[in-house]
Amino acid sequence: MKYIITFILYLGTFFCNAQTITLKQLSECQADLYPCPSYTNAKDNTNLLGKFVGTWKGASVDGRTYEFRFTKKDDDGGWLNDIFWDILVGRMTIKKSDGSILENTMSVSDTNTHFKGHFFDKSLTKYQLYYSGNAECNDKGYVYLSFPDPNNLNQMRLIFMQDRDIIASCPSDYKTLMPDAKAMMLIKQ
Predict the structure, then answer these.
(1) Are strands 39-43 and 84-95 parallel, antiparallel or unpaired?
(2) For the chain, how long is the longest CA-to-CA vector?
(3) Considering the entire predicted model, what is its pTM?
(4) Buried-most residue among 14, 22, 23, 150 (CB within 10 A)?
(5) DSSP state of 84
(6) What separation in angstroms does the CA of 138 have from each of 36, 54, 71, 106, 170?
(7) pLDDT (0 to 100) of residue 3
(8) What is the torsional sign of CA 49, 51, 53, 56?
(9) CA dist., res. 63 & res. 44, Å (int)
């Protein structure tokens, strides 16, 4: 009987220590507004990610055209630590000014897009993803999505901030697929 009571107390302690939190709570504790509680799941219970979901098109100053598709993936994670959260997964088609395709990840699996979400900022106005398409040429870094006018959810700003790594084996004329540190306006399709 003593072992049964001990086992029940152990299970109760285990299930009480880990909890589900919201993406809003996660953004606040990631911004050090308060300590993160022990959690196993961060859920998008108020559909914060929903406004980003869909197909978006835009162009850069060098003549490239971009088509991004963002989908919501529930309960992503668990690879290293049994923590799961709802994220955006990004896919893209990038074309040169002559129409030739530089990159197309529209049909690859979620695990092979190399373009996955992380967190919202503390004000819940910017969403951060990480892109790592061509790591050999340092074509990797954080992508930030936001809406310049919160009342117009059909126009979105995307900014790619390239990681600062030393690369020794890449051609000198290589350009990142997304323009580095330049805002690109996208229109919802």
Answers:
(1) parallel
(2) 77
(3) 0.85
(4) 23
(5) E
(6) 32, 27, 25, 22, 9
(7) 44
(8) negative
(9) 36
